[in-house]
Amino acid sequence: MSTPANPVTLPLSQYVPAHFLLAVEGRIATVTLNRPERKNPLTFESYRELTDVFRACAADEEVKAVVVTGAGGNFSSGGDVLEIIGPLVEMNTKGLTAFTRMTGDLVKAMRAAPQPIVAAVEGIAAGAGAIIAMASDLRIAAATARVAFLFNKVGLAGCDMGACAMLPRIIGQGRASELLYTGRFMTAEEGERWGFFSRVVEAGHAATEAARVAGHIAEGPTFANTMTKRMLAMEWAMSVEEAIEAEAVAQALCMTTQDFARAFEAFAHDKTKPVFRGD
User: Fold this and answer.
1) Are 141 and 236 in a shared domain?
2) Which of 168, 221, 252, 262 could share a disulfide with 173, CB 3.0–4.6 Å?
3) Please, what's the largest Cα pairwise distance for the chain?
4) What pTM value is reported for the model?
5) Same domain, residue pair 101 and 214
6) Per residue in 11-34, pLDDT tens?
7) 41, exposed or middle or buried, with CB in 10 Å at 0-12, 13-18, 19+?
């Protein structure tokens, strides 16, 4: 498992990844997993490069939201059987632990990125592909989307890349237990009904709808959106009393921004919709 030579130090709009597509249009960055002939599987290198890109989001003040999608009608089939699963069988415990920590770093990077992340799920999202969708802040599905946390199908536990921590919080303990114990596919209809997907659209339209949602988020108050994402994560480990106090501090900080004053002026004096600038 080689380490990438050049971690991302450029603005996202100037960075050209080697293992997937990255496009920045206006305030929205779109990450497209791009191995459609294999349903967009991940490799050791793409795991690392995705992690680097999401870490770089913290330093990019122009990008306000991120869309993650896959090429060719599928999201991602997970770890590449030949390029990842095969080599793992030959590794010792030290190498395997390094790998599992590396995959977990991708989820950590996605959750630490200040921008809300919207997953556009078409077709198959399986294994690590399902995890990337889960780690996003919002998920839009095509009607034909199917999601499987299929780790037990290959003899592994469902506790992979944070699944046992995050999935129950999204869809509930019982439903998460069923998916993680059986590895079965969850349909788009189930996913919407259970709260995994925000909405379901016609096949072929998930990326368009995700871009629309991301655009709406990007037009909002940047600091406040970042604070919302941070508090949604932090409050998992807080009591209600601690959460209320933390939110009081967070909201007070938001009230010091120019976007807050700008909104007041727009609503109270100009009778117009505020145009947020992220300051």
Assistant:
1) no
2) 168
3) 68
4) 0.92
5) yes
6) 898 999 999 999 999 999 999 999
7) buried
